[in-house]
Amino acid sequence: MSSFTVAPLEISSVLHGGYHHPVARRYQNNGRNLTKGMFMYPIFISDDPDAEEIVATLPGQKRWGINKLEGFIAPLVQKGLKSVILFGVPMKMEKDARGSPADDPQTPVILALQLLSKKFPQLFLACDVCLCEYTDHGHCGIMSELPNPLHSNMPTLDAEKSAPRIAEVALAYARAGAHCVAPSDMMDGRIRSIKLALMENGYGNRVTLMSYAAKFASGLYGPFRDAAGSAPMYGNRKCYQLPPNARGLARRAIKRDAAEGADILMVKPTLPYLDIVSDCATLEPDHPCAVYQVSGEYAMIVAGAEKGIYDLKQMAFETCEGFVRAGASIILSYFTPQFLDWLDEERTDL
Ligand SMILES: NCC(=O)CCC(=O)O
Ligand SMILES: [Zn+2]
Ligand SMILES: [Zn+2]
């Protein structure tokens, strides 16, 4: 016999009534459901025209040659794919210090943009803009001639030389048919340079500028570097990507890129950085906030599911719903093809 009595619940304490039924549980999303239109699918384009190469560390993803692209994309468009983001993977092209193959007329992403804009006129074509896949040193910009006195192994990039070069590459992609250019280098001043280059050449109101505004120096990019062959030859990217603990710096970068003319602001990676996603949505509520669920996050979720730790689909939904809850309205994810199926199925996990 207990020696105390339990007080009746206050009316405001009774929450279960609102989500006891699967249909009612769906109503509790504050009006924000995942939709097919939110997803942007990252695709790797090889300079081997017949490539269809498995990427061991990125299960289910391949490097695609230009001749295989239409056959790969057509069924996805049929299922409701609205948007892709292209990454060039030059395996054979000669790389140099300024990343010349980035805007060579024969570079794989330029060929892919020309092809896809012809074959799938409704598909929104975004293109990553960076030099790291194209430079011989594997860094994202043009190196500074001044050595870094603190650590010889850690490069410094020359922002003044890099920004115009990156703008030149972005313009070449716009000319090839990109609806959206997305600079991922984190170089100071590149958003402004790109916006001006687009405006001066008649693309100011025809091309969306999506900034990788808060890109952190993360351990989660490994499989991507394997897929894209873009690991730096020496040093790391800490001089230009944000330190993981740098919330203030991320907020400054978001505000800066909005002020410099970005149309969409991206945060990347996602799961360890949901506070930054929320910051992005509240600091710049008039800009769409995009998130990139990067290669390591994808590979981790797949690996955990294969180990039987959780259900793959449930985990993919849970993470992506977290991004939307935090404020994202665009999701770059390697799960995009699966979501095109999953979003047609009845939800049984709610
Ligand atoms: N610019 C793209 C990356 O740096 C990496 C993305 C990923 O890991 O999926
Ligand atoms: Zn890069
Ligand atoms: Zn440094």
UniProtKB/TrEMBL annotation:
Coiled coil: none annotated. The keyword Metal-binding applies. GO terms for molecular function: porphobilinogen synthase activity; zinc ion binding. GO terms for cellular component: cytosol. Pathway: Porphyrin-containing compound metabolism; protoporphyrin-IX biosynthesis; coproporphyrinogen-III from 5-aminolevulinate: step 1/4. It is an enzyme of class 4 (lyase). The active site is at K215 (schiff-base intermediate with substrate), K268 (schiff-base intermediate with substrate). Keywords: Heme biosynthesis, Lyase, Metal-binding, Porphyrin biosynthesis, Zinc. 5-aminolevulinate 1 binds at R225, R237. SUPFAM superfamilies: Aldolase. The keyword Lyase applies. It comes from the Eukaryota. 5-aminolevulinate 2 binds at S295, Y334. SMART domains: ALAD. Its EC number is 4.2.1.24. InterPro entries: ALAD, Aldolase_TIM. Its cofactor is Zn(2+). One of its GO terms (biological process) is protoporphyrinogen IX biosynthetic process. It catalyses: 2 5-aminolevulinate = porphobilinogen + 2 H2O + H(+). Zn(2+) binds at C130, C132, C140. Catalyzes an early step in the biosynthesis of tetrapyrroles. Binds two molecules of 5-aminolevulinate per subunit, each at a distinct site, and catalyzes their condensation to form porphobilinogen. Belongs to the ALAD family. Homooctamer. This is Delta-aminolevulinic acid dehydratase. It comes from Apiotrichum porosum. The lineage of its organism: Eukaryota, Fungi, Dikarya, Basidiomycota, Agaricomycotina.
